[in-house]
Amino acid sequence: MARTCPGEGGVTAFARPGDGGEKATITRRAPGKLFIAGEFAVVEPGQAAVLVAVDRYVTATATAGPGSDVCIVSDMAAGARRFERTGTTLSGDSSGVRHAVSAIETVEQWVAEFGQRPAAVEVRIDSALHDGGVKYGLGSSAAVTVAVAAAVSAFHGMRLSAGELFRLAMIATVRIDARSSGADLAASAFGGWIAYRSPDRAQIRTLVGRDGVGAALRARWPGLAVRRLPAPAGADLLVGWTGTPALTADRIAALDTRNWWRTAGYARFARNSDECVRGVAAALRGEHPDELLRQIHRARRLLTGLDTATGLGIFTERLAALCAAAETAGGAAKPSGAGGGDCGIALLGTGDPDRRTELTDRWRAADIRPLPLAVAYPEGTPVDQQS
């Protein structure tokens, strides 16, 4: 049977802080992510990707605040931001914290649907997904959304499964950008290695607007699938950071402008990407490291072809050097995510520390910083369920 992620069923409890629910100070954290395969294609509903959650975290702490306002303090934005409530809408300067604001608004709308009045709350956000304010490209916006949604939900007495947390974060995200695939949210909410298929986000936004947050959480989301995958057997995952931040939304917008998603070129890319993602998942499940490396080679070729056809600038000089170094060391590598900077990944056979050292030395010589990352597994939630 397929191994599927937990998350079916309803909310397990609701209580106000101090009324038998959670304590008045709640801390939750959410991991960053890396794309292994499926970038770009997964933006379209029903398309697939493989990702892994990594042990760099965004931590959100929710505490009782004075009055009826909401205050957000983030190490990724200057100064404390105070927001006034108008119903379940927060009014104030959301620059640098808009994903946190949307997460809070979404949770509070859900709380209001229970007939409860959201309590005043202060939310502090601390991120290990950047270096001196420069993002690594590990999905910081998604991790912020998941961590804040988890903390504020628990603050209001909501106890959520990983699946409910993902859906809540997805609703908060589509309110900002309906083109976001949600793959990074799934990795952050579920942890570990996952295979993901994206839902129709326009439909989700319609559901929320028509029926509310609670009904949208319970509704069927066509196209959505999240399944656990085992970690690679016989292969190590290495991560290199180029030191240059990149904006995924800019590259997606460039393809939107060209209407690329409706072209024959996209259809071929999507078909090949889906086959590659299936190949990666099968190699992981079957513990076939050589086939896994072959599929990573294939994923890189697909991105190279896309870059050549569209001129997006996926492969920077450093990302090209990152991949070339892995090839020289006997591994396989590719950009992780939309490219143009951020991180690249390499898969290298285990059991040969000299090759690993050779690869990281070559990266450093090319001004690529190896990141000491490990897989982030779920904290306090079931690892999987049988479908």
UniProtKB/TrEMBL annotation:
Pathway: Isoprenoid biosynthesis; isopentenyl diphosphate biosynthesis via mevalonate pathway; isopentenyl diphosphate from (R)-mevalonate: step 1/3
GO CC terms in record: cytoplasm
Region spans: Disordered: 1-23
NCBIfam families attached to this UniProt entry: Pmev_kin_Gr_pos (TIGR01220)
The keyword Cytoplasm appears for this protein: yes
Molecular function via GO: ATP binding; mevalonate kinase activity
Keywords: ATP-binding, Cytoplasm, Kinase, Lipid biosynthesis, Lipid metabolism, Magnesium, Nucleotide-binding, Transferase
Domain annotation GHMP kinase N-terminal: ranges: 104-192
InterPro entries attached to this UniProt entry: GHMP_kinase_C_dom, GHMP_kinase_C_sf, GHMP_kinase_N_dom, Mev_gal_kin, Pmev_kinase_bact, Ribosomal_Su5_D2-typ_SF, Ribsml_uS5_D2-typ_fold_subgr
The keyword ATP-binding is annotated on this UniProt entry: yes
Annotated ranges, domain GHMP kinase C-terminal: 287-364
Gene3D superfamilies documented for this protein: 3.30.230.10, GHMP kinase, C-terminal domain
Entry protein name: Phosphomevalonate kinase
PANTHER family: MEVALONATE KINASE
One GO BP: isopentenyl diphosphate biosynthetic process, mevalonate pathway
